[in-house]
Design goal:
Low-confidence stretches: none
Helix content: over 70%
Order of helices and strands: HHHHHH
Number of strands: 0
Mean pLDDT: 88
Number of domains: 1
Structural class: mainly alpha
Strand content: under 5%
Largest sheet: none
């Protein structure tokens, strides 16, 4: 059972990392886009990345917490899993505190389905007066930080599982 849980954990963490890494790798190309084209490109992320993020990232946090529970307390493996879990949780916090408010501004004029509308209505509404370049910078750099956290989390968890 523990091996199956560990494999599921690594797969879910890898899915979340893949999403974050995809955003980070797009960064240089997206910076060359003017506002109109940039906003068109932004619209391709919904709902795919949202679905992947909800299941992959949230599932990864739950699976990692479950793996941590079954690891011997205080072992090198448990400390690595704990480090990975902290990286995943911090990445999730970055999403809700830094990225979600930008999404909320950008999607206010988009027609979304009921689930998307509910998801993107969550969070603060404090960025209405920011320029699109300020919002872009915030969104892009936050995704780069999430990619770094996701890679660190996957590395720690995968290392723990193979020890």
């Amino acid at each position: 059972m523990s091996t199956l849980l560990e494999v599921l954990c690594v797969v879910l963490v890898a899915v979340g990392m893949g999403l974050s890494l995809a955003h980070a790798l797009e960064f240089p190309g997206k910076l060359r886009l003017p506002e109109k084209e940039y906003m068109i490109v932004q619209s391709i992320y919904y709902p795919g990345f949202v679905i992947g993020g909800m299941f992959g990232e949230f599932g990864a946090i739950l699976a990692t917490a479950a793996v941590l529970i079954i690891m011997p307390f205080g072992s090198t493996e448990s400390l690595l899993v704990l480090a990975g879990l902290l990286a995943l949780v911090i990445g999730h916090i970055v999403y809700w505190v830094v990225i979600q408010p930008v999404n909320k501004v950008w999607l206010k004029t988009q027609e979304l389905g009921p689930a998307g509308a509910a998801f993107f209505s969550a969070g603060r509404n404090a960025l209405q007066d920011k320029s699109w370049t300020q919002l872009r910078k915030r969104w892009e750099y936050a995704h780069i930080s999430r990619a770094v956290l996701a890679v660190a989390g996957l590395t720690a968890i995968a290392t723990a599982v193979v020890l």
